[in-house]
Amino acid sequence: MRWNFYLTGGILILLGVLTFRYPVEAIMTAGFFIGCGLVASSLNYFTGWYFVRFQRFLALGLLDLIAGVIMLAQPGLSAFFMPFIIGAWLFSTGIARTCAAFWLGGAKIRGWWVVLLNGLALIISALLICASPFVASISIMILLGCILIIAGVFSVVEGITLY
Questions:
Q1: N or C of the chain: less Cβ packing under 10 Å?
Q2: Which segments of the chain does DSSP mark as H helices, in order?
């Protein structure tokens, strides 16, 4: 088992270093995975719409599906527009959550304010990303590289300390 931790840690550290070394390729790869995530998210929204008939779920599902397909079909273009796509997705999701929070509050459902805070946080994040898309792209890759390296180091340390 110890070697499993060492191998996992080494791979994560290598991926973190490669993210720093090849940021454009890392952005394109992230675009691919985000595209897959958006397609999966659209299926989740469509399922919610099917069972609840909440029209915003249908709209969000279509938006996620379209954005996901575009990101998968055009990796270079998606790398360039990724901050705007992520910003638009966060903004639309934030608006939907904010509207849902007011609906939940009107229905006297407990915890509606948590949905409202989540929606407002998503809207603010979207505005910050779109205000400076280049900085947002670089920040995402720097953060990803740091996370990968830290996770790799922790994995190696786990292998040393647990066994």
A1: N
A2: 2-21, 23-52, 55-73, 75-106, 112-131, 133-162
**How much is the pTM?**
0.55
The closest of 68, 67, 62 to 48, measured between CA atoms, is 62
User: Which strand (E) or helix (H) includes residue 59?
Assistant: helix 55-73
Nearest in space to 79 (alpha carbons), one of 130, 115, 117, 25: 25
pLDDT digits (tens, 9 = 90+) for 94-127: 998 899 899 988 888 888 899 899 999 999 988 9
Using the structure block, give the residue that is written with the tokens 């992520």.
Answer: 86
d(CA 17, CA 62): 36
Q: What is the tens place of the pLDDT at every residue in 1-36? A: 678 778 888 888 888 888 888 887 887 787 788 788
- The ranges assigned to domains in the chain are 2-162
